[in-house]
Amino acid sequence: MRNFKDTIYFKLRTSNLCFLIPVFFWCHYFIGFTEGQMNRHYMKLKAVELKESDLDEHEKLFGIELTPLDREAILKYSGYRTALRFVSSRNSFSRTPVDVGTILSKED
Fold first, then answer.
1. CA atoms lying within 13 Å on the CB side of residue 29
2. Residue 14 contacts by C-beta under 8 Å, 6 or more apart in sequence?
3. Is 61:42 a contact under the CB 8 Å cutoff?
4. What does the alpha-carbon distance between residue 104 and residue 76 come to, in Å, rounded to a whole number?
5. Is 66 in the same domain as 86?
6. How far is CA 26 from its chain centroid?
7. CA–CA dist 47, 45 (Å, integer)
8. Contact predicate 27/34, CB 8 Å
9. pLDDT over 60 (residue 68)
10. Mean pLDDT lowest for which of 22-26, 34-38, 46-50, 58-62?
């Protein structure tokens, strides 16, 4: 008898919650659509080309000294962004992933 009551309880509970399924589906679809729009907008932005002279100018302007590690990170980021734009523009219909590391020059 107890088992039958549990079954009825769970049946009523699931029927009360089934209205959430379309909400979850809609949220998943909306998040995917939003991520796609953000990615498209990100790829349309122009990549910033920074050089050592630009970093020196900013150091003088703001009075903040950059460590060599900071300089290296900033320069790598600008190069990575340019390479990412290049890869996305050349391989827009490609289904195979492209390694951005092959385009960037490695300075070790």
1. 6
2. none
3. no
4. 9
5. yes
6. 21
7. 6
8. no
9. yes
10. 46-50
Among 88, 57, 91, which Cα is nearest to 74's? 57
> Contact at 8 Å (CB) between 75 and 47?
no
Residue 85 has pLDDT above 80, yes or no: no
Q: What is the DSSP string of 14-48?
A: HHHHTTHHHHHHHHHHHHHHHHHHHHHHHHHSPPP
Number of domain units in the chain: 2
State the pTM of this model: 0.35
Structural domain of 7: 1-45
pLDDT in tens, 21-38: 777 777 877 887 787 777
